[in-house]
Design goal:
Elements lengths: L1 H10 L4 E5 L4 H10 L8 E4 L3 H11 L3 E5 L16 H18 L2 E5 L13 H5 L2 E7 L5 E9 L7 E7 L2 E4 L3 H5 L10 E8 L2 E8 L19 H10 L1
Parallel strand pairs: 1-2, 1-3, 3-4
Antiparallel strand pairs: 5-6, 6-7, 7-8, 9-10
Length: about 240
């Protein structure tokens, strides 16, 4: 997604630098060719030494710099391994200070834990201006970009994307996509209109009902709180 965004900015004349600490430049170029972005004038670098990276950015003076990822960066002034709490905190501080000093937009990619939270010190979220979560589920080609913090705009907006062979493509009407294969008369299924930011999204709720030999029927739910389900049923 960031490679596609950098290519779009570069094609409009903005100078963009993509710094990869995870992969070699050849790997990023190979992905760019696969996505049809090889003609975009994005400058690539593969390094993890933050001092060298900041010196290069100070020389190049790009409009946009992408750091992939913050967990691979290391400062020689901090005696800790890359990815540690002290290194991540120090690297994020150096990058944010540099961005504000030079007027450069810097995007830092961060790893997430199994719970879906940003790995490392939580102080990084307080240091940056915007926090975006890129979410997806196994078995589905849809991805959601969610803003959980935004100093320049609303924090409840989402962007819906579909993973295709040509990269991520924007889904302008996710409701039509999600409900495309729905039967008109489906027992146990109902469509609910929810609001995500300023965008109404139609969501299908499905219920499977089976006869119970017990006097007290059992109600279970997947991916939701059971006590909340009991409250909703009481309201209904």
């Amino acid at each position: 997604l960031l490679l596609q965004a950098a290519a779009a900015f570069a094609r409009q004349g903005a100078k963009c630098v993509y710094v990869s600490g995870e992969e070699a430049s050849a790997q990023v170029r190979m992905r760019a060719r696969r996505l049809g972005l090889s003609d975009a004038p994005v400058r690539l670098a593969a390094d993890t030494n933050l001092r060298d990276i900041l010196t290069t950015l100070d020389t190049e003076r790009p409009k946009l710099a992408i750091i992939d990822s913050i967990q691979t960066m290391w400062l020689d002034s901090v005696e800790a391994a890359p990815g540690s709490v002290s290194q991540v905190r120090a690297a994020a501080h150096e990058l944010t200070a540099f961005a504000k000093r030079r007027g450069i937009s810097v995007i830092m990619v961060g790893h997430v834990t199994k719970d879906g939270q940003i790995a490392g010190p939580r102080v990084v979220e307080h240091m940056v201006d915007t926090v975006l979560y890129f979410e997806g589920e196994r078995g589905h080609q849809f991805r959601i970009l969610r803003a959980v913090k935004n100093r320049f705009g609303p924090s409840d907006e989402i962007g819906v994307f579909e993973m295709t062979g040509a990269g991520l493509s924007e889904v302008t009407n996710p409701s039509a996509l999600f409900l495309g294969a729905r039967e008109v008369q489906s027992p146990g299924a109902v469509v609910f209109a929810g609001i995500e930011g300023t965008r109404p999204v139609l969501v299908e709720l499905q219920a499977l009902v089976a006869p119970s030999p017990h006097s007290q029927p059992r109600r279970t739910v997947v991916g939701w709180d059971g006590s909340r389900l009991a409250m909703i049923l009481a309201v209904l």
